Amino acid sequence: MNSLPVLKNNLLHSYIPKHMTAVLVICLVLLGLCIVASLVFGSRPVSFNELIDGLFNPNVDSYGANVVRKRVSRTVFSLLCGAALGVSGALMQAVTRNPIADPSILGVNTGASLFVVSGIAFFNISTANQYIWFALAGAMITAVFVFGIGSMGRGGATPLKLILAGAATSAVLSSLVIAIMLPRSYVMDQFRFWQVGSVGSANWNDITTFIPFLIIGIVIGIISSSALNALALGDELATGLGVRTGVLRLVAALAGVLLCGATTALAGPIGFIGLLSTHVIRLILGPDLRFVIPMSAAVGAIILTISDVSGRLIGSPGELEVGVVTAFIGAPILIILATKVKVSSL
Amino acid sequence: MNNTSVEFIIAGRRQRRRRWIVVTSFLTVLACILCCAMLILGNTIYPIKDVIRVLTGEKVEGVSFAVSTIRLPRMLAGLFAGFAFGIGGTVFQTMLRNPLANPNVIGITSGSSAAAVFCIVILQSSNAIVSIASVIAGLATVILLYLFSRGTTFSIGRLILVGIGIQAMLNAVISYLLLVSAQQDIPAALRWLSGSLNGSQLHTLPPLVISVLVFAPITIVLGKHLSTLELGDQTATSLGVNTDKTRIALILSAVCMIALATATTGPIAFIAFLSGPIAKRLVGVGFSNIIPAGLVGVNLVLASDLIGQFAFEVRYPVGIITGILGAPYLIYLLIRMNRKGDF
């Protein structure tokens, strides 16, 4: 009997995936590289001196130094957005127990879009703070609606049902978005640039608005991760292990929607980050959500920043918006997943 | 089989044929009425007498320009695009035995649309090249779909998932192209996202018209085999249908029509998706619903365009109206399929 707690301890608490340290180191190195690349590359080349001036000498007011300062806020914002989207994807996949869940695929982004556009058109909203609340409401309602339709019938929410419900809902919502926009050209112009998904226009004000949502979402994600592990075994087993599945689902889904809604409000709909980062990390570390959820944040941040930098390089002298880049990296992954997932589970 | 049951079957067939004829003629008449309405209605309403005089080549002061330069091309674009989308959609839906497997959902219209936008915005190419590019892109999308969804066993679910993935990519391309084209104005942008008849011009129509005139008859003739294909490959083969050839011919014709319609009007939302199921409900089973589906497509496009033009204070392009009308039907269909456990 004495060995039981020891065994339990070994199995549940001190278990660390094989490559954890290596992954952690690699992620940190990559994050560092991303930050440097994001500061250095862009349509205007900066010299080393300008870089140092921009970062450490607030008194220097040269053009190059200002470019670097602008890139600092952009980099921070893209790292935060990537982290939020990564965790959001991991949470949604865990809650729906579904490998293809991602805010963009489930139509949650479009819901946020509709509410933001309605806000711009009917309530004259214009600040980041107002955008966020509208986007959150839209994301929340859409998530509930899509999941409601997707989980009807036998077998609960299968990937195919969820994805179709998401696609259909997106279609209605985007028609409504255009219908609202069309008579109002000022909304259209504001929206056209927001809709592609970009981190380029970020300022420190956006970032400070965003951080509380990010922290709340990620903290909830990490706290609920071990309970979500139990949920992965199935509702009955999870209940048997003492998890209140209903409450858990609600809280984790709320956190997921909070993260992606806030990101969408500020950066526009950026797709596939959650899908990509979660699958990459799960491939390396295995399915334990206590590691997958925090590491998805790191991987999401890396992927989004790399996409942003490559968008700047590919689109030079202008830039390719990050939403376009992530769609190009992410959609093939979705296709590969679709061909890999067993037909029976579709 | 005794005599009475044979008579019963014959009577049933006659009844279905009668229903098919009634429905088809009704749809044709309705389409004609809508066509006339498209010519008569506008900022100023012209009497039908004047419209007919213009169409027969007479010059009528004030009427000629509006009718022959603005309303006639608009009507023709709607007519042919609606027919093409309706037929193309129903071919895919019947062949894949799933109403969700239609060009709108699995990304074929997005493929053509992306190619057309690219040619127009970046290359500024001529009408002919736009048409060719959109057809090639449509076919390429189909081939990609086929390759990715083949797997060990064919699964319709996988095909739809792959299609949605491809579509996400293509839509990203379209949004980006619209963004870099600074001179591109808003109506043009919307055309390539959801379809519009605004600004249709007579000289852009020939590719679409020719393709419909060539491929629609082929599809209608092969349509007989289509209903056999619907029974499954083995049954169809044993009933004497060359399944592969028929399938390839049907896909080619359908894609050509859809691609050229998309190159002309943009991917009008949900027409390819809605026409087939509506026609099937009207006609019932047993007879090919290709012609009725084409007619339903025409009626939907023209009616939605009229609604978009005149029902609101603002003029909405046809794609917005069909999007708002069509998507709830898609959701309803999903709910029903989920309840029945079709997945």
UniProtKB/TrEMBL annotation, chain A:
Broad class of the protein's primary localization: membrane
Record Pfam families: FecCD
Compartment list: Cell membrane
Transmembrane spans: 21-41, 76-94, 106-125, 131-150, 162-182, 210-234, 246-271, 291-310, 322-341
GO cellular component: plasma membrane
Assigned keywords, A-Z: Cell membrane, Membrane, Transmembrane, Transmembrane helix, Transport
CDD domains: TM_ABC_iron-siderophores_like
Membrane topology per record: Multi-pass membrane protein
Molecular function in Gene Ontology: transmembrane transporter activity
GO BP: any one term: siderophore-iron import into cell
InterPro entries given in the database record: ABC_BtuC-like (IPR037294), ABC_transptr_permease_BtuC (IPR000522)
Similarity comment text for this entry: Belongs to the binding-protein-dependent transport system permease family. FecCD subfamily.
PANTHER family in alphabetical order: FE(3+) DICITRATE TRANSPORT SYSTEM PERMEASE PROTEIN FECC-RELATED, FERRIC ENTEROBACTIN TRANSPORT SYSTEM PERMEASE PROTEIN
Designated name of the protein: Iron ABC transporter
Organism: Salipaludibacillus neizhouensis
Automatic annotation (TrEMBL), chain B:
Keyword vocabulary terms for this entry: Cell membrane, Membrane, Transmembrane, Transmembrane helix, Transport
Transmembrane segments: 20-41, 75-92, 104-123, 129-148, 160-182, 202-222, 248-276, 282-302, 314-335
Keyword Metal-binding: no
Record GO biological process: siderophore-iron import into cell
Record has Cell membrane as a keyword: yes
Domain of life, source organism: Bacteria
One CC-aspect GO term: plasma membrane
CDD domains in alphabetical order: TM_ABC_iron-siderophores_like
Gene3D superfamilies: ABC transporter involved in vitamin B12 uptake, BtuC
Chief location: membrane
One GO MF term attached to the UniProt entry: transmembrane transporter activity
The family this protein is said to belong to: Belongs to the binding-protein-dependent transport system permease family. FecCD subfamily.
Record's protein name: Iron ABC transporter
Naturally occurring in which organism (per UniProt): Salipaludibacillus neizhouensis
